[in-house]
Specification:
This protein is mainly beta and about 80 residues long. The protein is built from 2 helices and 4 strands; from the N terminus they run E-E-E-E-H-H. The protein has a 4-stranded antiparallel β-sheet with strand order 1-2-3-4.
């Protein structure tokens, strides 16, 4: 039997500029602290791309303010 663990996304910060939305999100809800995660979600309306960047907690704000510097270049078309 597969165990279902509910997770929640809490928006910590959001900004928009020139058609790019950037959101800092805390993913939580598991029983263990290791189940928690910080993500930076980016939606670029100009070219229709969306991506999420997992971040270490101590780099979360830097990732939020400079998401394209932290984007995984292997995913860029």
């Amino acid at each position: 039997m597969t165990e279902f663990v509910a997770t929640f996304r809490t928006e910590l910060a959001h900004r928009s500029s020139n058609g790019v939305d950037v959101t800092l999100v805390w993913v939580h809800g598991g029983e263990r602290e290791e189940d928690e995660e910080v993500l930076v979600c980016v939606w670029d309306a100009g070219d229709g791309t969306y991506f999420e960047i997992p971040s270490e907690p101590d780099l979360a704000l830097d990732t939020y303010y400079h998401p394209f510097a932290y984007r995984d270049r292997r995913l860029v078309a």
